[in-house]
Structure formats: structure tokens, C-alpha cells
């Protein structure tokens, strides 16, 4: 079982009746069109169907499966308007007296998406007898952001080194580049930012742009555009200028020239992603200019070619009272000041990809600016490369959240897909969890998160459960026991990590730098808001960060309805309030008891996942079975470590005993504090 093939395994259909019915309905295939994308379509259908149906399917004129753009099917002309530029139609119909299945779209790219969907139906054992599926992506830009450095080190990467071998590009084109594009296309991802947001200007030099162009050429037939992270000070570092001031004429001209050079090599270059004035990155504020000045200058440079700028709102100023409020304070006043081709890219929460965060208040506060939502697939704060955490429930929680920006039902999903504020641009970007490991993501279940973000960016109405089920069937097979057991594990896993790391709204209590393991005691970094104690604020009275009027009042950044919800929902308790240890919660338990309960619940869930997995022995190939079994054992050990270290530490403030029925920590607090991880994958 080669895990390289991800969810496109195309193993033979097992159920004999189903196999027979598929064979009856797909006797021959006809694909019209000859573009590179249509060549991909032919190849995919050939491999897919031959594998799934275990028989060579002829490509000829008497086809029962007909594939091509709308002009190939005059009878379907009217359906064109339903499909946009990327959507597709899969239709069971009768043509020339024959029963056929048609896969069509307005563009070749749309046809490719349709073909992947059709193959997915077979892989997941669906009936294909009577289809009338119209599927159009809700979000225009569905991107992976790679935090890959030019030396191939991946920031926060836990799956090997970068896929991009800059040294051998552009002459050597690893077949893996094609496979990467193919897997992305199969879930609807249509763009990739190739390099780290902590950018190196060298990527913009002529030699490197040739390399970027080579990748763009490989990706193009799969509908994937390339984008680059741009370093704001590039005009100084590689352009010989003395300033990077966005209002300086030479600087503006330099970027215009750079854009011209890029588009000459890559006519469909997507645009720039920028991290500015954040964590030491250069930016317009160094020249007394605003984020809008910086973004607009770059936007003007790429506008003539249809390019865009994704300007990140991940900023936090050491002088501010509460890091939570920073992005909003800096960006909300700029709403309406950006060019049309600028998107402001906002992380899902106000701090930084914690196991659970309230949605970022900016998501309800910039109606005049198209917002790009940034998620993180790489599990920097969620167990990194070893924990099984299925992220779709986290994504859904954010997308379904209601900002009330324009009354009820102003969800984050509607903000992001552009429908709430009528934006032409819309997008979701996910920080990739991919490296050069044979199975791409290291942990087999990391593949599910890559899969999920593609599917959800395409269609945010899909449920976590539907996506999990699709992925399991394609990755492990259609056996009902497998599907139900693995689904149970996946659906429980996000709440589990929240519980064993940061229950009840705790956040940012991990180890410094590498972010590996618990360190709620952390208090020795120069900036207050880098230290865990800043976030949990435990003292002998209680625990939690008061963000109400009596505290930093960060809550004011949300609409009244949202404030009320966050104050009522105990999932977010310690995000917004400092509560006494003895306060009773809805469960009847006190805050201290509830903390103990939740940490234990998290550990118990991981142990239950382990025993569920054990029952699958023999139903899964030995290689994957053992791999996941070992990783689950690490996860169980680390969940216990998080629980014990955190509870022992918080107990020094609560000064209350552990409730009798729970397992006691097997080490002292000091022992936990002394653990050190000099070579943990860091930043
Ligand atoms: C944090 C990471 C850091 C990134 C930063 C960012 O710890 O490595 O550079 O976010 O998003 O999550 O820019």
C-alpha cells in the first residue's frame, strides 16, 4: 500500500454487484478537446477507470461516458450559465438514442474538476446511474500557502523538507511536482504560494523566477496558479535602492518593473502574499506609511496583468494592551482604503492558530475589503507531526460562526465567499502540511486535512462528517466497519486536542519557540505577549483573561450578539473572563473541577481512539496500521503529559486537590518544567 497515492488510489471496486453495474454503465469513453488540461483528463480517466473497474476501458466514439466542454454538447447549451468558469455538470441523459453520462463545463479546468468528482463517486461506492450534479466553487481562490524556505527548510513543517528543489530547478522537473498539482486539482485547490511569508528577496531574482516559471508550467494544466511571498524590502536587497518606501517613485517603478518581468515569464502569475511589519518583517510602517500604502503600491504593480495582493493582517505590536486586539486596531480603520485587487488575509482567530480560538473580530469588521481567510494545516499548535487531529470541525466552527455584521446569518463563510458584501474576489488559504515525506504529510491522517480544506473551500456546505467519510472511503476502503470506526476517531479528535491542551478557552500555553509541549509556567521572554502567563493569568483567585469591560475590552470588537454568545459559551470561558476557582459551571462542577474533568476527558478520548484503532487490525494494511498505532501511542503519552503538567501547574494557584476519581500525575511539576527539547522542530 503506497501512501504516496493519497486519496487517488483507484483500487478495484470490491462489491461485485456494484462493479458489474459500473462496468455496464461505462463501456467506452469519449473525450473531446486537445489542450494540455484535456490530456490530463484523458489520462486521469484512463488510469482511474482501468484501476477501479479492473478492465481497460476503450476511448472511442461509441462512448457511454462523454466528456468535454459545453460546445461539444449543443443540447446542453442552456446549462452553461449555471457553471461559471470552474463549475461542472455531471448528467445522466440520452444522446442519439443512447443512455450516456456527460461530464461537462464551460472550461477545460471545469471538466477536469468534474472528472475528479466522477471518479470520487466510484471510489466512494456511490451510484452513478442517475446523475444530475451541478457543482460550482463558492470561493474563487483556494490556495495552499507553503512556508518553505529557499534552503528547503519548512517553517513549522513536520513532514520533511520542501517539495521544491530550487537547486535543480528549472532544468530538472521532479515528477512529484506534477503529482502535487494533480492531488490539489482533485480537491479543487487552484493556487499555491510557493515560499515562506518570512520571505527571502532572492525568490524575486531572475534566476529564481526562471525556477518559479518552470513550476508554473508544470502546474498550469491542473488549473493551479503560482503566487509568491514578497519581501517588502526587496527593492533594497536585490534592487540596489536605498529605501523601500511605498510612496517613493523609484520604489514604485522597481516593483512595476519586477511585475513586468514576472508576467513575461509567467503570464498567469497569481500575485503576491505579504507579511509586513510583523515579527521583524519589513513593511511600510518603517517609512511612516500604512499597510494600505504598502499593499496598494504592490497592487498597482500587478494590476495591469490581473494579479492580486494578499496582505496579511497577522500583526501585533508590543506596545498594545492586548495582543488579541491588535490586528483589528490596525486594519479596521483601513477598510475601504485598499485597491480592488487587494485582499486582506486574516488568520481564523485573533491570536495564532490555537487549538480553539474565537473567530477573528476582523472577519466581521471590514465590509469594503475582500478578506482571505487563513487556516493552518500544519499542526504547529495541535500536536505537530504526531497527533491525529482532523481539522474539518475547526474549519467548520469558524465558517459557521455568525459575525452579525449585517444582522443574523452574516456568517464567516458568507463573508469569505464574497456573498455577504458582494465582492468579486474571495478566498481561503491554508498553510500547507506537506513536505517531501513519501506520504506527503508524515502522519497518514494529515492527508485528511489537506483533503478537507480543498473540499471545504470548494463547498463550505459540506459537513465534517461527509468529508471524513469521503476521505476514509478513498484512503482506506469502503468496508462499513472501517468507515464508521475511523470516522468516529476523526470526529472526536479535534475536541480531544482542545481538551488535553487548552480546555475551557485556555490558549497559548505551549513551549517557547518550537511550540512543542506544555509550558504554562513560561514567563521569561522579553515581550509579555510571548509568555504563556500573559494568556492564562492564573492566580490564587482564579484563571482566565478578562477581555470584558473590566479588562481589556477586546470583546467590544464584536457585535453585541456575538459578545453575548462568547460570554455564555463555556468553550470560550477563559478567552474572555477571569473566573474564580470555585465558580460553578453549567455542569455543576467548579472551574477547578471542570478543568480537571476536561483535561482527563481529552486523555480518555485519545485512549478510546487507540482502542478503536486496535480493532481495525487486519482490516488495514500492516504498514499504515502500525504507523498510526505508533503515532497514537505518542499522542496518548503527550496528551497525558499536557494534562499532568498543566494541572499540576494550575494547582499551585488553585491550591485544591485533584478530584479523587482521576489518574494522578506520574511526575512532579518540577520534572515537567525541566524537560527540554533542544532539537524539536522549531522556527
Ligand atoms: C506563527 C508561527 C511563525 C509564523 C507566523 C506567521 O509561529 O513561524 O511565521 O505565525 O504566520 O504561527 O507569520
Automatic annotation (TrEMBL):
Active site as annotated: 279, 352, 380
Domain Glycosyl hydrolase family 67 C-terminal: 441-662
Catalytic activity: Hydrolysis of (1->2)-alpha-D-(4-O-methyl)glucuronosyl links in the main chain of hardwood xylans
Enzyme class: hydrolase
EC number: 3.2.1.131
Domain Glycosyl hydrolase family 67 catalytic residues, every copy: 122-440
Domain of life where this protein originates: Bacteria
Complex and partners: Homodimer.
PANTHER family: ALPHA-GLUCURONIDASE A
Entry similarity comment: Belongs to the glycosyl hydrolase 67 family.
Record protein name field: Xylan alpha-1,2-glucuronidase
Species of the source: Chitinophaga tropicalis
Amino acid at each position: 500500500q503506497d501512501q504516496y497515492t493519497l486519496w487517488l488510489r483507484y483500487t478495484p471496486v470490491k462489491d461485485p454487484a456494484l462493479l458489474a453495474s459500473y462496468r455496464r454503465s461505462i463501456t467506452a469513453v469519449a473525450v473531446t478537446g486537445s489542450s494540455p488540461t484535456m490530456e490530463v483528463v484523458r489520462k486521469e480517466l484512463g488510469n482511474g477507470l482501468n484501476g477501479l473497474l479492473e478492465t481497460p476501458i476503450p476511448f472511442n466514439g461509441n462512448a457511454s461516458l462523454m466528456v468535454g466542454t459545453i460546445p461539444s454538447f449543443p443540447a446542453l447549451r442552456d446549462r452553461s450559465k449555471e457553471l461559471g468558469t470552474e463549475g461542472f455538470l455531471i448528467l445522466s441523459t440520452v444522446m442519439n438514442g443512447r443512455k450516456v453520462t456527460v461530464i461537462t463545463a464551460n472550461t477545460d479546468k471545469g471538466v477536469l474538476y468534474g472528472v475528479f468528482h466522477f471518479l470520487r463517486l466510484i471510489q466512494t461506492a456511490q451510484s452513478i446511474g442517475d446523475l444530475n450534479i451541478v457543482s460550482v466553487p463558492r470561493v474563487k481562490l483556494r490556495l495552499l500557502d507553503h512556508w518553505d524556505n529557499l534552503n528547503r527548510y519548512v517553517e513549522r513543517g513536520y513532514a520533511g523538507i520542501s517539495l521544491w528543489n530550487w537547486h535543480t530547478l528549472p532544468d530538472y522537473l521532479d515528477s512529484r511536482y506534477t503529482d502535487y498539482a494533480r492531488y490539489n486539482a482533485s480537491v479543487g485547490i487552484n493556487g499555491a504560494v510557493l515560499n515562506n511569508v518570512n520571505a527571502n528577496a532572492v525568490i524575486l531574482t531572475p534566476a529564481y523566477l526562471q525556477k518559479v516559471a518552470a513550476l508554473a508550467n508544470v502546474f498550469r494544466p491542473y488549473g493551479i496558479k503560482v503566487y509568491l511571498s514578497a519581501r517588502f524590502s526587496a527593492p533594497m536587497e536585490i534592487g540596489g535602492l536605498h529605501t523601500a518606501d511605498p510612496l517613493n517613485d523609484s520604489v514604485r517603478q522597481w516593483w512595476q518593473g519586477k511585475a513586468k518581468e514576472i508576467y513575461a515569464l509567467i503570464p498567469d502569475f497569481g500575485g503576491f502574499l505579504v507579511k509586513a511589519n510583523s515579527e521583524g518583517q519589513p513593511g511600510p510602517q518603517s517609512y511612516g506609511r500604512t499597510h494600505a500604502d504598502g499593499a496598494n503600491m504592490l497592487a498597482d504593480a500587478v494590476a495591469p496583468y490581473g494579479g492580486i495582493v494578499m496582505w496579511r493582517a497577522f500583526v501585533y505590536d508590543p506596545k498594545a494592551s492586548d495582543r488579541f486586539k491588535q490586528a483589528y486596531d490596525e486594519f479596521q480603520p483601513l477598510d475601504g482604503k485598499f485597491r480592488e485587487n487587494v485582499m486582506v488575509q486574516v488568520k481564523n482567530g485573533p491570536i495564532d492558530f490555537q487549538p480553539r480560538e474565537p473567530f477573528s473580530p476582523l472577519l466581521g469588521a471590514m465590509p469594503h475589503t475582500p478578506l482571505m481567510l487563513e487556516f493552518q494545516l500544519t499542526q504547529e499548535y495541535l500536536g505537530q507531526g504526531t497527533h491525529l487531529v482532523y481539522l474539518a470541525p475547526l474549519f467548520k466552527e469558524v465558517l459557521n460562526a455568525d459575525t452579525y455584521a449585517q444582522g443574523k446569518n452574516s456568517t464567516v463563510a458568507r463573508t469569505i465567499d464574497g456573498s455577504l458584501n458582494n465582492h468579486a474576489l474571495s478566498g481561503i488559504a491554508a498553510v500547507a502540511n506537506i513536505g517531501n515525506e513519501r506520504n506527503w504529510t508524515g502522519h497518514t491522517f494529515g492527508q485528511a486535512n489537506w483533503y478537507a480544506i480543498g473540499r471545504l473551500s470548494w463547498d463550505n456546505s459540506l459537513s465534517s462528517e461527509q468529508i471524513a467519510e469521503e476521505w476514509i472511503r478513498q484512503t482506506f476502503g469502503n468496508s462499513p466497519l472501517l468507515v464508521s470506526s475511523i470516522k468516529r476517531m476523526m470526529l472526536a479528535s479535534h475536541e480531544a486536542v482542545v481538551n488535553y491542551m487548552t480546555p475551557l478557552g485556555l490558549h497559548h500555553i505551549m513551549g517557547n519557540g518550537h511550540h512543542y509541549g506544555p509550558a504554562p509556567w513560561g514567563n521569561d521572554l522579553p515581550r509579555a505577549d510571548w509568555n504563556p502567563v500573559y494568556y492564562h493569568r492564573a492566580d490564587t483567585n482564579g484563571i482566565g483573561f478578562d477581555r470584558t469591560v473590566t479588562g481589556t475590552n477586546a470583546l467590544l470588537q464584536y457585535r453585541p450578539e456575538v459578545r453575548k454568545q462568547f460570554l455564555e459559551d463555556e468553550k470560550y470561558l477563559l478567552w474572555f473572563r477571569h473566573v474564580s476557582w470555585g465558580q460553578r459551571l453549567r455542569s455543576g462542577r467548579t472551574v477547578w473541577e471542570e478543568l480537571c474533568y476536561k483535561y482527563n476527558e481529552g486523555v480518555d478520548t485519545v485512549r478510546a481512539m487507540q482502542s478503536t484503532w486496535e480493532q481495525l487490525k487486519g482490516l488495514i494494511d500492516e504498514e499504515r496500521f502500525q504507523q498510526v498505532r505508533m503515532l497514537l501511542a505518542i499522542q496518548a503519552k503527550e496528551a497525558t503529559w499536557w494534562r499532568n503538567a498543566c494541572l499540576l501547574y494550575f494547582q499551585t494557584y488553585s491550591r485544591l486537590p485533584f478530584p479523587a476519581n482521576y489518574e494522578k500525575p506520574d511526575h512532579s511539576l518540577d520534572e515537567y518544567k525541566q524537560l527540554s527539547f533542544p532539537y524539536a522542530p522549531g522556527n
